[in-house]
Amino acid sequence: MVIFAHYIGFNKMKQTIRTSGKFKFLEVGAGKPIVILHGLMGSLSNFQGVTNYFPDKGYRVIIPMLPIYDLPLLKTNVKEFANYVNQFISHLNLSEVTLLGNSLGGHIGLLVSLLYPNYIKGLIITGSSGLYENSMGESYPKREDKDYMTRKCQEVFYDPKVATDDIIDEVFETVNDRKKLVKILAIAKSAIRHNMAKDLPKIHVPTAIIWGENDIVTPPEVGHDFNRLLPNSSLFWIEKCGHVPMMEHPDLFNVHMEAWLNSHSN
Q1: I want to staple 37 with a disulfide (CB 3.0 to 4.6 A). Which of 68, 81, 92, 105 is the partner?
Q2: In 3D, which of 188, 197, 238 has the Cα closest to residue 214?
Q3: Percent of the chain with pLDDT over 90
Q4: Domains assigned to the chain
Q5: Could you report the per-residue pLDDT of 179-224, keeping only the tens digit for each?
Q6: What are the φ/ψ torsions at residue 80 (nearest 5 degrees)?
């Protein structure tokens, strides 16, 4: 089951988490909205390069905390998270939103763009699920084996050193919480079952696909398939990069993202 890739990087960010209604979110800057969709463990820090850079470029960067562990088990799936994101966008009265999602977050962004395109001006996906993912281990991980967990965390990156002790410890702690693990497995299974190959040609939102050339979770052919199936998409590659480009090469990721945003600014 592919679960490790969705929740690498859970370090706490310095910015304050806001609350409005039922929603909790991080918000930085003012201007054109970028809504970031995180992975399974609320990994806001994965996008620190984006949140540090784009507010100075006239963007309002917002990261809603998805209710990964809060929904009933039968509603713990990709479609319910897409509905939640739609409700969040409506709650903040946002329009012309650019969505950015990695891994599971990219999958959710694709579904939001399919179901609620009127809100969405652009979509950026990186290492997204929704088509195909390599298995990263058994359906029930060896959660008490720290060496195993370390290897699985490292495999997500081209450079294993990016998987710091803090990241590994956070993952190890979470998967050894049985209640959280049940939800994580439910979401991962939902993501694998919810293949979007037939739906992608219906998504006409302009889409940037930013992919690591050395991604072994969603390999390069997956990036090519997204580019082939999404009718209004552009594909960008990052060398010596695994499944989490905005974490492993944040500066280069921002270069690609900013260039694409500027080309779709009208």
Answers
A1: 105
A2: 238
A3: 62
A4: 4-263 (3.40.50.1820)
A5: 888 888 888 888 888 999 999 999 999 999 999 999 998 999 999 9
A6: -65, -35
